[in-house]
Design brief:
Length: 181
């Protein structure tokens, strides 16, 4: 794991290795493929943190699907939570009558997903579910139904595998607890 060297190594504590992440995503891809077989599926990646997970997840899937992206911005005080949410880049595809699976890196307070669910429901999809690699139940403010979850984490701040601290560390192949300065 040489990529750790290029960052402030002393602030990183590895939680999930590349191997653990791949094993989990393989199982998730298999499950999603079985559950959505024969259905018209659209995967919606929430920019930007979920991109690494989304790409790897689709590589483990064996059914047809479409991909689209949505970007939401938050006016939260902190870098890791959302107070007021709005869409900054909307979907390009119509989801009306389609089975939608929102793909997230992490569900933390649930504020951004709560907003997204309400917004996407008004477009009348045939189904609307959430898939997240990481889940932090301890920080939940808004209850959101999470259908597929990779790993449950305690209340810590993590980086790597798409997750950032001030836009850095996304390209780490592992997920690490990050000691914020
Ligand atoms: P929410 O608090 O559930 O609305 O999460 C909002 C977003 O904050 C997530 O989709 C992540 O992009 C980001 N986020 C939450 N927790 C962390 C973390 O521990 N590390 C990096 N980003 C995080
Ligand atoms: Mg996110």
């Amino acid at each position: 794991m040489s990529d750790k060297k290029s960052y402030r190594e002393d602030r990183l504590k590895i939680l999930l290795t590349q191997e653990q992440i791949e094993e989990k995503i393989t199982a998730m891809g298999k499950k999603i493929s079985a559950d959505y077989a024969g259905k018209e599926l659209i995967l919606i990646g929430v920019l930007r943190g979920s991109t690494y997970f989304l790409v790897d997840l689709t590589r483990k899937m064996s059914i047809p699907f479409a991909i689209d992206f949505i970007s939401i911005s938050t006016y939260g005080e902190q870098s890791d939570s959302a107070d007021v949410v709005r869409i900054t880049k909307d979907l390009d595809l119509s989801i009306t009558g389609k089975h939608v699976l929102i793909v997230e890196d992490i569900v933390d307070t649930g504020l951004s997903l709560g907003y997204l669910l309400r917004n996407l429901k008004t477009r009348n999809p045939a189904g609307l579910k959430i898939c997240t690699l990481l889940n932090v139940e301890a920080r939940r403010i808004v209850e959101v139904p999470v259908e597929y979850r990779g790993f449950d984490l305690p209340n810590i701040f993590v980086v790597g595998y798409g997750l950032d601290y001030k836009e850095r560390y996304r390209n780490l192949q592992f997920i690490a607890e990050f000691d914020r300065p």
